[in-house]
Amino acid sequence: MRPEDIDFDDKKHRRANQCYNCPALAAEAAAALAAASIVFKDTEDYSKKLVHGAEILFKFATKGQGENYSGTPDPPSHFYNSSGFWDEFVWGGAWLYCATGNSSYLQLATTPKLAKKDYAFWGGPSKGVLSWDNKHAGAQLLLSRMRIFLGYGYPYEEMLRTFQNNIDDIMCSYLPVFPTFNRTKGGMIQLNQGRPQPLQYVVNAAFSATLYSDYLEGELISGWQCGPEFYTNEALRDFARSQIDYILGKNPRAMSYIVGYGNYFPQRVHHRGASIPYGKVKYGCRGGWKWRDSRRTNPNTIVGAMVGGPDQRDGFQDMRANYNYTEPTIAGNAGLVAALVALSGGRTSKIDKNTIFYAIPPLYTLAPPPPVTWTP
């Protein structure tokens, strides 16, 4: 049914599930609240409320045990099951450090024991694909930002350097000269290995690549190494632009995969608010199925929604019932907006180095411990 037609009364509540052991979900929510607290830092009371909620959620997620967490993973659900929670611990810890300046969060995010449990530096190319499930690349990119702009020394430098080295490898994997990921004939990188709904992963990679190029530019670093070869930062922006251009219509079908953009875009989006007509009739949940299965174009245009995207042969079926092609998601549109903002302005738009770290106190680098006394 249309969201506008939902009218719950005391006899019929919308069902919600309770969770007592959900480390991935709670740590991800903690990361979101911590990040939002920085956005709203000038509204002090609200920002503090967000930080408070983030810290409570993170403690709930880790049971206060940090890298020694011994609880169970999130319970299974019909959709969006988490493949693990250690990456969310690193992700949540990194964002909470930015939001609070409490070094215990940075200690957790950079502890080698946690990285080992997370398989942070192993597991193949999928580790470099930022998604709703996989936070490795995002967490490591955020921690690399700290190393680049804040210049940590002992005791964090070794792990932060390892994270940045891993980000360097991830950025190399995005370049077309490397065979890590296949590409369609039209040029779309197949970050989810040819499985459906590829665009949500593509936009995240475009955003991440542009962001990393901004970090390097911000410190007047002209590029990075991929094995023996040196690539300039512009290679990352070229990659990001090529993928966003593909989504906007520079593809074999000349189709924009963003609804309402361009002259040719999906007309049968898998979205109940867009597909059920507005009128005097209020369709119930099952009553709306006839509109899901209809071949008519959507009566309502969901402007700005990015659909799931084409298949590995650049093909696309504009069918509402086939959600693999036509379903828009919040996760996908979040990455799209981020990528578009990051690319706007080009290299003339300088990155704000400091605001994200406003809560972190001045750094006083500790001296490493003296070497053990040598006894002949």
From TrEMBL:
Q: What is its EC number?
A: 3.2.1.4
Keyword Hydrolase applies: yes
- Presence of the UniProt keyword Hydrolase in the record: yes
What is a single molecular function from GO for this protein? cellulase activity
Q: Which reaction does it catalyse?
A: Endohydrolysis of (1->4)-beta-D-glucosidic linkages in cellulose, lichenin and cereal beta-D-glucans
Q: Which residues are annotated as active site?
A: H270, D318, E327
Per UniProt, the enzyme's principal EC class comes to hydrolase
> InterPro entries, from UniProt?
6-hairpin_glycosidase_sf, 6hp_glycosidase-like_sf, Glyco_hydro_9, Glyco_hydro_9_Asp/Glu_AS, Glyco_hydro_9_His_AS
Q: Which keywords belong to this entry? A: Carbohydrate metabolism, Cellulose degradation, Glycosidase, Hydrolase, Polysaccharide degradation
Pfam families assigned to the protein according to its UniProt record, in alphabetical order = Glyco_hydro_9
Which residue intervals define the domain Glycoside hydrolase family in the entry? Answer: 1-340
Q: What is an annotated GO biological process for this record, any one?
A: cellulose catabolic process
Q: Give the UniProt family note.
A: Belongs to the glycosyl hydrolase 9 (cellulase E) family.
Q: What is this protein called?
A: Endoglucanase
